[in-house]
Specification:
This protein has helices at residues 15-26, 51-59, 63-69, 107-120, 165-170, 234-245, 252-256, 301-317, 322-352, 361-371, and strands at 7-11, 30-35, 46-50, 71-73, 75-80, 85-90, 102-106, 125-127, 131-136, 141-145, 150-153, 155-158, 178-190, 198-203, 206-212, 217-224, 265-274, 280-281, 284-286, 292-293. The protein is an alpha+beta fold. The protein has a domain at 3-73 and 100-177 and 272-353: FAD/NAD(P)-binding domain, CATH 3.50.50.60. The strands form four sheets. It has an eight-stranded mixed β-sheet with strand order 6-5-14-15-16-13-17-20, with helices on both faces. It has a six-stranded mixed β-sheet with strand order 8-2-1-12-19-18. Bound molecules: flavin-adenine dinucleotide. Flavin-adenine dinucleotide binds at residues 11-17, 34-37, 40, 44, 47-49, 130, 159-162, 165, 184, 268, 288-290, 296, 299-303, 305.
Length: 376
């Protein structure tokens, strides 16, 4: 059997799992996805794809469709809490001068676009299903699924996210995700007409991000170093969110007036994770948040997942045996992933320090983003 006859079971239908299915299918392998959630809707509100991840979407054949449904951005406006502009920061662009440095879109939109491509490539997706038991042999793995069916695949890709049960089972020495000290509030709103640029407002221990999306919508995020990791009680969520928004001027009061229901607000404690290689055991390899979870300070977690998938597809296309493929994947990806996670965490820690913003934050952001131009 040549490697391109390999069949791959992918665990998880998030960005990493779907991108892996697309990349492996393009390399000629047959794949199938099992996704635990019965409806596979993405968590969260909006997402930004940076320039190097956009380059990865070119390799996945998704770039033009992403540009068609996303909103391109070239700069970030830094603004004081009262609405006073501070600076307009150009963003790193690793692609051509006509390509946007980053694109914002609804999470749902990215999910649907990738799910359409998975479907177009003929990859079966079983929702509400996962692995019940797996038995690796020399050149295959026998799997029993929770829907009662059994199958044999050449190997498994685990893309089951930050709280990966595959990681817990197969890499028992791997660290667990850790709380960064910040939590995040997220919401979607109508975008004020005059708000055209991605805008970041700095209010001491609070940071507000306003990301215009297509169709007059807005993705709002609010980083919070005061609230702690516990989800506030439901009856207090909306009030606490609005209290925090009230610390900001500029467009914030107009946007805040559109929130009257707790269902509009998402809250999450920010965690991070870096798993040192190996990222495989038996005939299962791990990608995406399952091995490198980042805080969103560089908006790069899904970007890393997309890049993992591109490298996976490239290695699979070279006809490598599983062990070598898995080892080379982690070797190619670990340093880059660690750099993004550690820089994001450092930015988070600086934001938690009392006093004015740390003057080194701009340089760290610029250097880390510039480094993403390196080939993956
Ligand atoms: C607040 C916040 C903002 C962010 N903003 C950005 C951004 O702007 N840009 C960016 O690039 N990244 C961003 N990220 C990061 C990004 O969301 C993640 O890095 C990305 O979703 C990781 O993709 P994944 O497929 O590895 O994991 P997930 O997205 O977690 O997907 C895992 C999938 O596996 C499924 N699953 C779990 N367990 C099992 C199981 N046992 N069997 C089968 N299926 C299973 C889950 O249901 C899920 O569908 C942000 C993250 C956060 C928290």
């Amino acid at each position: 059997m040549t490697e391109n006859d390999d069949t791959v079971l992918i665990v998880g239908g998030g960005p990493a799992g779907m991108a892996a299915a697309i990349a492996l299918s393009r390399a000629g392998l047959r794949c199938e996805i099992v996704e635990l959630a019965p409806d596979a809707r993405p968590g969260g509100v909006g997402i930004a794809l940076q320039s190097a991840p956009l380059r990865a979407t070119m390799a996945l054949g998704l770039y033009d469709r992403i540009l068609a449904v996303g909103r391109p951005h070239r700069t970030i406006d830094m603004v004081r809490a009262d609405g006073t502009p501070v600076a307009e920061l150009p963003q790193v662009n690793v692609n051509g001068p006509e390509d946007p440095p980053f694109v914002g879109m609804a999470r749902e939109t990215l999910h649907e676009l990738m799910a359409d491509e998975v479907h177009r490539l003929g990859v079966p997706v079983r929702l509400g299903t996962t692995i019940a038991a797996s038995t690796p042999a020399d050149d295959h793995v026998d799997v029993e699924l929770t829907d009662g069916t059994r199958g044999r695949w050449s190997w498994i890709v685990a893309a089951d996210g930050l709280h990966s049960t595959t990681r817990a089972r197969l890499l028992p020495g791997a660290p667990d995700p850790q709380y960064s000290g910040q939590s995040i509030w997220r919401a979607e709103a109508a975008c004020p007409e005059r708000l055209e640029h991605y805008t970041m407002m700095i209010g001491g221990p609070l940071r507000l991000g306003l990301v215009p999306l297509p169709g007059g919508r807005l993705y709002l995020w609010l980083l919070d170093a005061l609230v702690g990791p516990e989800r506030p009680p439901r009856d207090r969520m909306l009030g606490m969110f609005l209290e925090r928004l009230a610390a900001f001027g500029g467009f914030a009061p107009e946007i805040a007036a559109g929130f009257d229901d707790v269902a509009q607000v998402d809250f999450r404690a920010l965690q991070w994770l870096v798993v040192p290689p190996p990222w495989h055991a038996g005939r299962t390899l791990l990608i995406g948040d399952a091995v490198h979870g980042t805080t969103p300070h560089l908006a790069y977690g899904a970007g890393l997942a997309l890049e993992d998938a591109v490298v996976l597809g490239e290695l699979a296309g070279q006809g490598l045996a599983f062990e070598e493929l898995a080892a080379r994947l982690a070797e190619r990806r670990f340093a880059r992933a660690r750099r993004i996670v550690e820089a994001s965490l450092q930015l988070s820690r600086w934001e938690q320090e009392p006093g004015p913003p740390n003057p080194e934050a701009g340089a760290l952001t610029a250097a880390t983003m510039a480094s993403t131009a390196e080939p993956i």
